[in-house]
Write a structure and sequence with these properties.
heterodimer; A: 704 residues; Immunoglobulin-like; 6 domains; five-stranded antiparallel beta sheet; 3 helices; 45 strands; elongated; disordered N terminus; B: 195 residues; 5 helices; 17% strand; disordered C terminus
Chain lengths: 704, 195
């Protein structure tokens, strides 16, 4: 809210008016003018005097009148000179020889009187004293043309005070105080504070009398500022940066000067270095230098340079597309950038604009387009002169890969199979549509096409054509745009081979047969070992997975029957979990009883062979009576020979002491006879002495 | 066995000591030479700086001057009585002191004097013989040079030393030029041999 104090409301206009009057007084300085006429009041009367003479008698007559009266003529005073006056015995008779003459001066000014004497009248008297005078003349240090001064302008001023005791104090003028030298009866000075222009400056001298001289005038004519140059172009359409299109262009030079002005024809232009003329023409394409020159009335000349160009050739437009190109018009990158790199040989490119899919025009030479589907970029390139070229680009974006999935077996699952594997699935692509589908049975190392029917596919694989193992089966599809998906996959474990079975080919009944059952595929399910005893029957042993031994020792029995000497076929069969089987066979020998008694000796020499070391003595009983099981034994190291090793001698405790003492003796003796410290000291003393002396000399030389 | 080891150790230590002392001496000699070079430089600078403005230096009592130098060099109060012998090759002057000692001034340092005499004397007469002068078979530095005391006085002690020494030598009839350094040898009384 605005509130105003009433007092302030009243005072503010007065203060404003006061300052306004001061300002007006300063700006409108005027000469006070001479004021030396004085009016005084005095008493005056007219004094008329006459003298009469007749016959030796003389008489004078003084008559007093008011100052404005006139003195009577001499003859008119005849009655005043009668008998009795001045002792005259007779009247003055002019006709009888009495003569009367006027004795007051002629003219006869009034004389001072004191009232109330006769005729004394109060009179107003006016006195005019000599005035102060001032003179001035315009001076120019650097004369121009047409009476203009172009530099060093000034006014030489002088003033004089004719009255004794009075002095000139300063010379004042329209601009204010023009000079203020020490007070003197006669002064002279110069003033150079005038501004640009052609005008009359009035000035006057101020006097201690309290008045001034009559105002004098001098003409001031100063122009120190050169004119400005310019030009105008007609006949074409303006672009920017001085370029035009159309034409031909007419260049008209112009100049302006605020003070003296530029006369007609005073501005000229030179086009492309040609001759100067008030106007010029550009009719051919290109850029031209414009040299402008203008001369004002005062004689100042200015020049400047500019340029103008004519370009009627539209720019060359050169659109391009940056993105991952697919097939045909398709791009597979999510972002496609349209670029425009056109050029203009004359005025250069002024602006590049693009419009994406009919949207708003935007500035720039790079248009980024996103979104699946078809797109259009319209380009518009304008050169500096305003010529325009247009072009457009059409393309489609499909950045999304097709999607394929296994339906059977289910996507991502692992299946274990032998024989044929029937696979089916689907592929789809939303934007450009499916192009083809491929399957790889070896994890992507090689691919083969598979038929597509409405996005569905199927494939039958006979796994018996490949070795057992785990296979990554991949399916991928490509779309019309060229995207290739990252594949659908399942894992197929093929197991068409039975387990690898191995048993010792031939072994004695007291030996242990080596049994090996392994499956490269899904894993062992079970194994069976059958010893065929012919008429003695057979012995069958079944093992489940995980319980299959790697050694087998036969107890020589077919059930409860002890096997007689002979050779028996042993068949080992194993099955994997898919029913694939493998087998191997060996022979176990039950020898005839020996006829000689062997002698076994234990040796202390360990053997590194895998043959068993028999311990104990061979039983003399027949094999039919004693079943002997011979287990292979690991070779045992021979016991070390019991050698007495002498203990190392106790450390000789005097050695360290001896070494320390020896070092001390060496250091002591060599230190005692070491002459180096003395030599060091002497060198140090000399160097120190030399340093001190040098320092002292430097100081002494510094003093000198 | 242990005795042999002990002897071997002692011999080893002795070898170490001998080698160390030998190399220490070599290093000390090198340092001495560096010190001499430094001293030469220092004296050269002194001679250059003092501005040869002492051409009128004259010594009226050279014996007194030599006595003063002896006191400075040897660091002891000694009274020189008279100049006894003067030698020209090598340049030296011998004074007799109040206690019967001999004080010898020479521009040559002990090593140079030793080298000088060893090159002029017959070998095999002992170290004292090698230091004998050529004149009258009187040992210049006594029969036992190890017992003598020595010192030096040079431009380090007086910036006009070379002019003073030259003038003092001339006054006593020894023409040794203007040596910048004089060695002072004090031969004890018992070792002195008078003529």
């Amino acid at each position: 809210m605005f509130t105003m104090n009433k007092k302030r409301f009243f005072i503010s206009p007065l203060i404003s008016l006061f300052f306004l009057l001061i300002i007006v007084g300063v700006v409108w300085a005027q000469a006070p003018g001479p004021n030396r006429t004085t009016t005084t009041t005095v008493w005056r009367r007219k004094h008329c005097s006459y003298r009469a003479s007749d016959s030796g008698y003389f008489c004078t007559l003084d008559l007093y009148y008011t100052p404005s009266s006139s003195c009577p003529s001499a003859s008119a005073t005849e009655p005043w000179f009668n008998a009795g006056r001045c002792g005259w015995p007779f009247d003055c008779d002019i006709s009888a020889g009495c003569s009367i003459v006027v004795t007051h001066p002629s003219p006869n000014p009034p004389v001072s009187c004191s009232p109330p004497s006769t005729g004394c009248t109060e009179v107003t008297q006016t006195t005019t004293l000599p005035e102060a005078t001032v003179n001035g003349s315009f001076t120019c240090g650097l004369a121009g043309s047409n009476g203009w001064c172009v530099g060093g302008a000034g006014i030489d001023l002088s003033a004089n005070e004719p009255l004794a005791g009075e002095m000139i104090t300063l010379i004042e003028g329209d601009p204010g105080v023009m000079c203020d030298p020490p007070n003197a009866s006669s002064i002279s000075c110069s003033w150079s504070g005038g501004s640009e222009g052609n005008y009359s400056i009035g000035f006057w001298a101020m006097s201690t009398y309290g008045d001034s001289s009559v105002e004098e005038f001098v003409n001031w004519r100063l122009d120190t500022v050169p004119p400005t140059t310019g030009y105008s172009v007609s006949g074409g359409t303006a672009g920017s940066g001085g370029w035009y299109r159309g034409g031909p262009l007419t260049i008209t030079a112009s100049g302006s000067d605020a003070t003296s002005g530029v006369p007609s024809g005073g501005a000229e232009v030179s086009i492309g270095g040609g001759g100067y003329a008030p106007t010029g023409t550009i009719s051919s394409e290109g850029w031209y230098s414009l040299d402008l020159m203008a001369t004002d009335r005062a004689g100042h000349t200015s020049s400047s340079s500019a340029g103008a160009g004519l370009d009627n050739t539209p720019p060359v437009i050169n659109p391009g597309i940056t993105g991952t190109a697919g097939s045909g018009v398709w791009y597979t990158s999510a972002t496609v950038t349209g670029t425009e790199s056109g050029s203009d040989a004359l005025s250069g490119i002024g602006s590049r604009q693009y419009q994406i899919d009919g949207g708003a025009w935007q500035s720039g030479g790079s248009a980024t387009v996103t979104g699946e589907g078809a797109h259009t970029i319209n380009w518009q390139v304008t050169d500096v002169a305003g010529n325009t070229s247009t072009d457009s680009q059409s393309f489609s974006i499909d950045s999304v890969e097709p999607v394929s999935v296994f339906v059977s077996p289910a996507e991502g699952t692992t299946v274990t199979i032998n024989g044929n594997l029937n696979m089916s699935g689907t592929s789809a692509d939303a934007t450009s549509g499916l192009n083809a589908a491929q399957i790889s049975l070896n994890g992507g190392s090689s691919w083969s096409g598979i038929g597509l029917a409405g996005g569905a596919w199927n494939y039958s694989w006979d796994t018996r054509t490949v070795p057992n193992g785990t296979y990554n089966v991949l399916v991928r599809a490509s779309d019309v745009a060229g995207n290739l998906e990252s594949t659908a996959h399942i894992t197929v474990v093929v197991d068409n081979e039975g387990p690898h079975v191995n048993i010792t080919a031939l072994w004695m009944v007291w030996e242990t047969a080596s049994v090996s059952v392994r499956d490269a595929g899904i894993g062992i399910s079970s194994a069976r070992l059958v010893i065929d005893g012919g008429v003695y029957g057979s012995q069958r042993i079944d093992w489940s997975s995980g319980n299959i031994p790697n050694r087998f020792t036969w107890d020589r029995h077919f059930g409860s029957v002890l096997a007689p000497p002979g050779e028996y076929t042993v068949t080992l069969v194993a099955w994997d979990q898919l029913g694939n089987s493998g087998s191997d066979s060996g022979v176990v020998v039950v020898p005839e009883p020996p006829t000689a008694t062997p002698t076994f000796e234990q040796t202390s020499t360990p053997t590194s062979t895998a043959e068993p070391v028999k311990t104990g003595s061979k039983p003399t009983a027949t094999p039919a009576e004693v079943a002997m099981v011979i287990e292979p034994e690991a070779a045992e190291p021979a016991e070390p020979e019991n050698v007495e090793i002498p203990l190392p001698p106790a450390p000789y405790i005097w050695w360290p002491l001896t070494v320390i003492v020896g070092l001390a003796v060496i250091l002591g003796i060599t230190g005692l006879y070491d002459p180096r410290p003395k030599a060091w000291r002497r060198l140090g003393e000399i160097r120190n002495e030399a340093f001190l002396a040098e320092e002292a000399r430097d100081k002494l030389e510094g003093y000198q | 066995m242990d005795v042999s080891i002990g002897i071997a150790l002692v011999l080893l230590m002795a070898t170490f000591i001998v080698i160390a002392i030998y190399y220490f001496r070599r290093q000390a000699v090198a340092l001495e030479q560096v010190a001499e070079i430094e001293e030469e430089r220092y004296m050269r600078q002194t001679r250059h700086w003092r501005k040869q403005d002492a051409s009128n230096i004259q010594i009226s009592d050279p014996t007194k001057w030599f006595q003063k130098q002896a006191v400075i060099a040897l660091g002891m109060d000694i009274q020189l009585l008279e100049a006894d012998r003067k030698f020209s090759n090598p340049s030296a002057i011998e004074f007799v002191a109040n206690a019967g000692q001999r004080v010898i001034f020479s521009p040559l340092d002990p090593r140079s004097i030793k080298k000088f005499f060893s090159g002029n004397k017959t070998r095999g007469k002992g170290a004292a013989a090698k230091l004998q002068s050529m004149e009258g078979e009187t040992p210049l530095l006594g029969r036992n040079p190890r017992s003598m005391e020595k010192g030096a006085v040079s431009l380090r002690d007086d910036e006009y030393f070379d002019l003073l020494s030259g003038n003092a030598g001339e006054k006593l009839g020894v023409h040794w030029g203007e040596p910048a350094k004089l060695w002072v040898y004090l031969i004890p009384q018992g070792l002195a041999i008078f003529k």
